[in-house]
Automatic annotation (TrEMBL):
Keywords for the protein's UniProt record, in alphabetical order: Cell membrane, Membrane, Transmembrane, Transmembrane helix, Transport
UniProt topology in membrane: Multi-pass membrane protein
Family label: Belongs to the binding-protein-dependent transport system permease family. CysTW subfamily.
InterPro entries referenced in this protein's UniProt entry, alphabetically: Bact_Polyamine_Transport, MetI-like, MetI-like_sf
Compartments reported by the entry: Cell membrane
Name by which UniProt lists this protein: ABC transporter permease subunit
Annotated ABC transmembrane type-1 domain residues: 70-257
Transmembrane is among the record's keywords: yes
A biological-process GO annotation: transmembrane transport
Length: 277
């Protein structure tokens, strides 16, 4: 085959990949664009749309029940992140530093709540809280969320600890650092990005959770459960407005993760290369 033929094949393959990537991009993000347009549409459809309006956003901020559900999701997400970060980080140290019989099985059992279908976890937790006479409330929702956000943080932090290895701790101890100083000045800065990444991912999953929340919700509803209840009586344009706000929040979190965690990871790699040199 001639050189020009091979070059043509490469370009044709590159064009095909670009088209494929563009189609995937459209498939993923076109629905988000439609939601964004709908949130500013003066009518309930975008066909025959004339101008833009903030009507649905005004109605959104006047709907106290919807706002309460939104803030309930924020509160549950923050509380779940705090609890799961503490428990998950401690559990990650336990799994990576302590050897005991059945460690692999224990690790699998820890990850089980995150891997099980939400309907199984929700039903199991509902039976549990009912059996000990705990009323459905914010506490039961938080209990359900912590059950699957803790493995997320634990997996992120334990992966970083395994990649880091024990050499840095040994070096700190050789220089006279006590266990607390080793953790605070050596280990914690090196796993900080994993902790933050796990916490942000846990918050995102908690905020979006509906199946487990649906089983454990009483009168104290989170936003996904409230929106699900709204959809049974028809689709309100206020849903588009709240979806756009959540989309913007997600973009802010993603930008933070990309800039902060990426920059911290690059700094860590540069330091590691300089020490190796």
């Amino acid at each position: 085959m001639s050189k020009s033929g091979r070059t043509g094949d490469i370009y044709s393959k590159g064009t095909g990949l670009k088209i494929y990537g563009a189609l995937v991009f459209v498939f993923l993000y076109f629905p988000l664009l439609i939601v964004l347009i709908f949130s500013f549409s003066p009518t309930r459809t975008i066909f025959g749309m004339e101008g833009l309006t903030l009507k649905w956003y005004r109605e959104l901020f006047q709907d106290q029940q919807l706002l309460n559900a939104f803030f309930h999701s924020i509160i549950v997400g923050i509380c779940a992140v705090i609890i799961s970060t503490v428990i998950g980080t401690a559990g990650a140290f336990f799994l990576t530093k302590v050897n005991f019989p059945g460690k692999g099985l224990f690790r699998a059992l820890v990850m089980l709540p995150f891997l099980l279908p939400g309907i199984i976890m929700g039903l199991t937790l509902l039976i549990f809280v009912r059996s000990i006479n705990i009323p459905l409330s914010m506490f039961t929702i938080l209990l359900g969320h912590v059950s699957f956000t803790t493995p997320i943080v634990m997996f992120q932090v334990s992966s970083r600890l395994l990649r880091m290895g024990p050499n840095y701790q040994y070096a700190a101890q050789d220089l006279g650092a006590n266990p607390f100083q080793t953790f605070w000045y050596v280990t914690l800065p090196m796993i900080r990005t994993a902790i933050i990444g796990g916490a942000l991912l846990a918050f995102t999953v908690s905020f979006d959770e509906i199946v487990i929340s649906y089983f454990l919700t009483g009168t104290w509803m989170t936003l996904p459960v409230f929106i699900y209840g709204m959809l049974r009586f028809g689709l309100s344009p206020k849903v588009y407005a709240i979806s756009t706000i959540i989309l913007l929040m997600s973009l802010v979190l993603i930008s933070f993760m990309a800039r902060y965690i990426g920059r911290s990871g690059e700094t860590y790699r540069v330091k590691k290369r300089s020490k190796g040199a």
